[in-house]
Amino acid sequence: MAADPATLINWGLLALEPPGWGGVLLGGLLNSIKIALGGYALGLLLGTGGAFGKLYGGPVLKDLLEVYTTLVRAIPELVLILLLYYAGTDLLNQLTAAMGYGPVDISGLAAGIFVIGVVQGAYSTEVLRGAIKAVPAGQIEAARAYGMAPTQIMRRITLPAMLPHAIPGLSNLWLIATKDTALLAVVGFSELTLVTRQAAGSTKAYLLFFCAAGALYLALTLVSNIVIRIIETRARRGMVAPA
Amino acid sequence: MTVETSTVEATALTELPGGRAFLKPHRIILLAIAVIAIFCMAWFMRWDWIPDYAGRLAQGGGVTLLMLFSTCILGFLFAVPLGLVQVTGPWPLKMLARTFCTIIRGTPLLLQLWLLYYGLGSLFPQFPAIRDSFLWPYLREAWPYGVAALTISFAAYEGEVMRGAFAGVPAGELEAARAYGMSRWKVFRRIWLPRAVHRALPTLNGETVLQLKSTPLVATITVVDAYAVISKIRQTTYLTYEPLLFLALIYLCLTAILVVAFRTLENKIPTRGA
Questions:
Q1: Which of A83, A127, A217 has the CB atom closest to B111's CB atom?
Q2: Which CATH code fits A25-235?
Q3: Cβ of A207 under 8 Å from any chain B Cβ?
Q4: Which residues 6+ apart lie within 8 Å of B96 measured at CB?
Q5: Were both Cys, which of A68, A191, B10, B78 would link to A32 (CB 3.0–4.6 Å)?
């Protein structure tokens, strides 16, 4: 085969219509974004609960949450994803069997969102816990002195006041979530990395497709960065600019 | 504390739980439940495959550790110039370093790994010059690509940390060193680098744990590390959970050892007020 780089690149392979694989790659990117969004949202929910539980919960809850965050932060995501993927689908199937239904077909999307969400939950627990601790205690005490209920304090004082402290960490977690979706390729979910490998494998244009996928991931990161900067300036309005 | 540091600490274990007053009454009950759960796992699950595969598991663990240490050391050697150039270098170098960090940090490691292994790996054989060179026997194996990808990734993430660490060394210390008549290189070697490394140590700990968490990815390009051995065991014994749980235990122990080692190292460095 010729070693001339100009002939090695066949741009037609990236065309959007079926002879090219561009449409397939974009579909994979869409799947990746869906999982990242879903997993991130689930992680935020778990993280908010986890952070409040770790700070204000009872001793047993605090310890259990500590075990959760310790395990997730010490074990590779790849291993966690495999464990959660099999354990989650197994548990769900046993549950439906116990309730009298047959085994259900779990969509890859739901399973992917679940595993990414559980992993992100532990990360955002830690980020949000730090942000909540940065809220001056006097503000929370004042709210309590006004006679607000704990949920009211959370909704009116703690959550809005911690947001500027949490946003830089949370935006990093979003970037991590988008990159973690690539790991789902190992369990066979057709997100961007896996479809790229399939496209590359069937056309033998490995370098072209992997570079194209890299450009898509990079574009996702850069666009995210712009959005994050807008959100950050909005959340920090009225605050002294950081030195 | 910078955002990078707090994010690393949120995603990697850098401190072992426990410490003061560990044995509170409720903890004894929780521990009892944990012991019962572990006993049930040991009793009702199948662990008889461990002796058969002990040798291969040890080899895989060795490969994992070798990957971890070689890429961390190599990556750190690249990270120092990357960070330094971003703080003090001329603007073309600064731009280059920043672009490198952005690209590597903006794309998944798995993709980079596959790009190197499948992409470059399929390109190399087309050049006779490479086929004839002494490097060819190595380039036909998988591990050089794994080492390269992990090194590049570690260098990019740690380069960002070193940039902050270099920038954070008080200017007065560097000026004092200059006033003593030290040359630029001597200032760097005696003051700037040691102080920056010291500042970066807590984050370095987290980055090393993150690197350990990334090593199983090399199994996807046929490097036989601990994860690959466990995958093989799962295929031959048809067990779903037991090998994975065992693997999780291995990584837990490795992380704990890393954290303790870094804590010892940090305590050895004398600091004012500590």
A1: A217
A2: 1.10.3720.10
A3: yes
A4: B85
A5: A191
